[in-house]
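Sample intake sheet
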Amino acid sequence: MSKATTMPRAIVALTGVATLTLALYGGLAQAAPTVGQPAPDFTVTDSNGVSQQLSAQRGSTVILEWTNHDCPFVRKHYDTDNMQALQNDAKAQDIVWWSVISSAPGKQGYVSPAEANALTASRNAAPAAVLLDTDGKVGRLYGARTTPHMYIIDPEGTLVYMGGIDDNPSANPADVKTAKNYVRVALAAMENGQAVEPASTRPYGCSVKY
């Protein structure tokens, strides 16, 4: 068999392997969102049955907070009212705050719509909406790894911050007072027309229960 005949077959074989690999893993692999680039658009139903689309919020700053009420790192920020204070401050500034639950049915942190609303009420939380991402599509789209995991999107739809809520990766509520809150730092920079710095940090918390 000539090289001219062998080479095309080898290329076809390699192409077949690549195609099979993409077929097996393509649905799981997502390109990570990039700070400074447009935030990936999505549509998802909230705990009140309302369809929420990110691109419909263009013109407003949007904060995405991945959450799991059973996670001790999340409880740290809610038991100290740290998360609620951020939510209320955002609300006062007409910032859209979406709490996102990507826990799958049967996994830690999964809640029904009614349970999600009951949690919001019992904790005096103030998100604009609680998004129920039970199939994990939005979480994977954003590469959300932990609860909490924070993302800030500016009025033009650009992702300007993603990462941890602060610089103290502990579950100890006492550490909230001395931590550098990256969300507050980012919002202050945006209000002053400055670049967000740091724009990306390492998130900490419980793994998202896809």
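Comment: Strands lie at 43-45, 51-53, 62-66, 96-101, 129-132, 146-147, 149-153, 159-163, 206-207. Residues 1-29 have pLDDT under 50 and may be disordered.
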